Amino acid sequence: MSSTSGLSSCCISGHIHDGIPTGVVEKIGGLDVYVAKPEDGSQSKTILFITDVFGFAVPNARLLADDYARAGFYVYVPDFHQGDSFPSSLLQNVAPLEPEKRTGLQAASDTEYTLLYTIPWLGQHSDAVVRPLMDNVVVSNHPSFTTEPEFLNIAKPTQINVGTNDIFLSNALIAQIKTDMAQKTHVPYEMNVFEGAVHGFANRGDLTNARQKAIKEEAFVYAIRWLNKYLA
User: Fold this and answer.
1) Which pTM value belongs to this model?
2) CB atoms within 10 A of CB 161
3) Least confident among 11-15, 47-51, 88-92
């Protein structure tokens, strides 16, 4: 099992969600990929779902992908960790995606729309993993290891969902990012701030806790609205 050395407790903690994933695992571009399909099988709205440090095999990521599929999206959840989830080195040193893997993922959809849904790590890893695959729109839930300049490079419609108690994103940085993004009038953006929410609230909160469950569901609704808005 991968080492968790160097990761904070909030980054490697959380709750496993109940449920049985309904998608399938396919091999695409040399990567194992969990695929969740909408009822009509249409790929006209496609999401590339980048997981947190726990990877693509945990139920939480797959169940959330299934939720998006039920909302009409065709969802790919690649095993970018390639079987070695949540080592600290993954968060600090992400190598650029190999061309054959990148091409395979881009070619998997038969539509011009390839969307990106990131769970936590938008910031430092955008050049290595995110930007080569990004096409239309971004949703980022509780990004980590992020600095202000990285948000200045955003060029696609971007929604960011963060909590006021997130150890990786201070309230001062949240306020500064809001100010910076507001000045980028040519790039649509939205930042939703959830009072009291901690890192990981959108995908590994305690669903027996009414407040945590409500925050997770609210972030999901915001994401659906944002994605649909830029696919109209």
Assistant:
1) 0.75
2) 24
3) 88-92
